[in-house]
Request: fold
Amino acid sequence: MQVRLSTGGYLGTIEESFISSLNIGQVFWFGGRPLELVKVKDMVVYGKLSKKKSGKVPAWGGGRLPLSSRLSEQIRLKLEAARQGRYEDIEMLTVKPLLEIQQLWSAIPGTDSLLIEKTTTDDGCHVFIYPFEGPVCP
Reply:
């Protein structure tokens, strides 16, 4: 579904299942801003900026689908190689600038760690957890 401001500005898209869980007047976060749900019409969600500091946070279907054990293991191994400065294939060379920024600002999780990041903004305190599949057991 498209998300638009009541004044007409286009903000992006959101899943219908998330919007169907809201009532008119409830606040949800989108694009880093709190929006009050004004109406839903013709697959378009209309919202207005809210001054409230809390509200529902959308979840996308892809965020609820777990990685397969084999894929998550391979991702962890690639991240471990990046921690050691090894970028051996085109895919890793492509994401190298992003991983270097990640390492500079925080950390790249190893095969035996869980990355948890905390940040504070004008909107409050936020925690991000990157579990992949959790620690690899021997």
Remarks:
- Helices lie at 16-19, 61-64, 69-83, 90-105.
- Residues 52 and 122 are 12 Å apart (CA to CA).
- The mean pLDDT is 85.
- Strands lie at 2-5, 10-13, 27-30, 33-41, 44-49, 115-121, 124-130.
